[in-house]
Amino acid sequence: MPANLIEAKNLSKAYGDFKAVDGVDFAVRRGECFGFLGPNGAGKSTLMKMIYCFSPRSAGELTVLGLNPDRQAAALKNRLGVVAQSDNLDDEISVRENLEIYSGYFGLPKKQAAQKIEELLHFMSLTEKAAARIRELSGGLKRRLVIARALLNDPELLILDEPTTGLDPQVRHLIWVKLRELKKRGVTLLLTTHYMEEAQQLCDRLLVMDKGRVLAQGKPRDLMARHLPPYVMELPASRRLAATPPGVKVDRYQDRVFLYAKSPAQLHRLAGKLKGHFSIRPVGLEDLFLKLTGRDLHESE
Fold it and tell me: Which of 40, 142, 167, 251 has a 20 to 30 Å separation from 61 between CA atoms?
């Protein structure tokens, strides 16, 4: 197997005149967590669907695990695990029965499937809920079950399309712990998210996108260092500033002003001349996206 599990060159997906994905290039390395970061409508889920054989590409090149998703879908699906945005579980049967039925899609022998199901119930902390019907589960428990289901075939590549959207912070952090454990076991993770913290917590490398196009890609820290000084002070736009000190960059966005500097000391000196509320913090991916697009990660068009 090549070092890159996924390779895409000038990859595009069009629906009529609308290009959901527009000439995207990227490669995913074995054993890493690679993330697509962007707002809703950026093209992240469309990319995922092309990778896991749900939607054929319109143009460009794409190989996944050395295979062509458009021509070798059956062989590829047996080696992938997919956690789609929709939980699509059978509400009328139990947690264990959902896993039993799904194991049949991979042709697992009954004894092997039963052993694997018990392992996954334990791994995702679902053992006590094994007999519960799906309609009795919280949103967080359902997401943990969908992840367990995606691991039944011991996938080489686990694809997660916004796996923690709508979940409370405690459940979100639990899922992050489990995903890190999977990565330590050698599973390659492909993740879409619009949560800055999720991307920073999990991803070795990121592809930042908007409106179907790539804005930047690389390691999270490298991306931020490439585009922004390391510290930012944020304050209301109504606050009047004197002349900006040398080495401090200013951006304005809606009702906020962002002042960027190489050291917090520069910003603290400036803050001493201000009254009222302000914050000084390290820059994050939200700042990067705002810098690249002029809008934040949660803002709609």
Answer: 40
Token match 């039993």: residue? 100
Flag whether 294 is in a domain.
no
SS3 at position 13:
strand
In a domain, 160, yes or no: yes
d(CA 232, CA 235): 10
Same domain, 220 and 233: no
Residues 146 and 244 occupy one common structural domain: no
Q: What is the pTM of this model?
A: 0.89
As a whole number, the mean pLDDT across the chain is 90
Tell me the per-residue pLDDT of 17-31, one tens digit each, with 9 for 90 and over.
999 999 999 999 999
Residue ending a domain, choose from 175, 205, 224? 224
**Concatenated DSSP letters for 148-198?**
HHHTTT--SEEEEESTTTT--HHHHHHHHHHHHHHHHTT-EEEEEES-HHH
* pLDDT(262) > 60: yes
Pairing assessment for the beta strands 80-83 and 231-236 based on DSSP bridges: unpaired
